[in-house]
Amino acid sequence: MSKRGLAILGIGLTVVLLAGCGSMSNHTKEDSSGMNQSETKTESEVQNEEMKTGEKELEESMENQGSNLLTPEKAYERMESGDPITIVDVRTEEEYNAGHIENAILIPNEEITDTKPELLPVMDAEILVYCRSGNRSGQATAKLEEMGYTNVKDFGGIMDWPYETVNTPWEDKQGDLSSFRSVTLDGQALDEIFFAQADLTMVNVWATFCGPCLSEMPELGELSAEYADQKVQIAGVVLDTLDSDGTISQEQILEARSLVEQTGANYTHMLPTTDLLNSGLDTIYTVPTTFFVDSNGSIVGESYLGSRSKAEWAQIIEELK
Q1: Of 97, 189, 244, 300, which is least packed with CB atoms within 10 Å of its CB?
Q2: Has residue 102 been placed in a domain?
């Protein structure tokens, strides 16, 4: 039995014993005071209260001890928080296709070795891991932590998941803008569905060393906010987060985050994953380079080299949307 199972079993036994003692105490008081049964708590009510107390104490104990375990309820709360969360299913592809938690990415436990998975390039991302029963998720969490990931949580098995699941199959992507996988600066996985949520997406490829890139980013942030209700969105791709060895640089991620905050470019920024590079980004040698795509990921119009003013970009957007 896993450590999670032993912990829950221990709490369950404690709850039963406490509930029994509480029940005996209530009967004793009733006999001595003459109180009616309706004025005392039922055994079921006492047991429910004790169970809730036990669950709360377990969560508090985990937090106090810096544990990497989460209850399903706590994991769901994090998923619904609006914060950038990466959900990782470490079962097999067959198990994933039979039913999985929405927005989960598939990285089988057997494929997690001593090399960072490409879909987990951000070492400080908040990563929530699950499997079928809690065994493989524990193994995967330990391996990820050994590699240096700093915010990995194991919330056990899908067999204990009380919320909805989906059964969309895991698919290999084509490696173009209509079928790709990437990751944001915060480590959140995304794919071509990102483009589908808008009629027009402006993709601005930039680098942290590029002065013209940084000079136009404040106005791109303003445009992003102004066009948000018109089905137009802006996305950045930080090209120089990719090291010469093909891995994502954690130092460059931190630098890019700082620059995004400083410039107010508060829109989605993606990392140059293999899929994005194969879609044509590997032929970009000038930054900034900007192009536009429709909801299907098809390029609209031409590519633009160099920076533009806010008014110039607004005119181009109006012509394309």
Answers
A1: 244
A2: yes
Structure tokens at 174: 């084509």
Secondary structure class of 301 (helix, strand, coil): strand
**Same domain, yes or no: 111 and 15:** no
Shared domain check, 222 and 123:
no
Helix, strand and coil in the chain, % to nearest 5: 45, 20, 35
Choice between 12 and 195, residue whose per-residue pLDDT is larger: 195
What is the token pair recorded at 43?
């055994």
| 103 backbone φψ class: left, alpha, beta (φ>0; ψ -120 to 50) | left
Residue where a domain stops, chosen among 64, 88, 116: 64
Range of the domain at 212: 181-320
Evaluate if residue 57 carries a pLDDT over 60.
no
**Strand 105-106 versus strand 85-89 pairing type:** parallel
Percent of the chain with pLDDT over 70: 79
CA distances from 291 to 173, 181, 204, 233, 313 (A): 21, 19, 7, 12, 11
Query: Cβ atoms within 10 A of the Cβ of 218, count?
Result: 14
d(CA 138, CA 153): 9
Nearest Cα to Cα of residue 232 among 127, 167, 319: 319
Whether residue 206 is found in the same domain as residue 120 = no
CA distances from 20 to 5, 71, 258 (A): 23, 26, 57
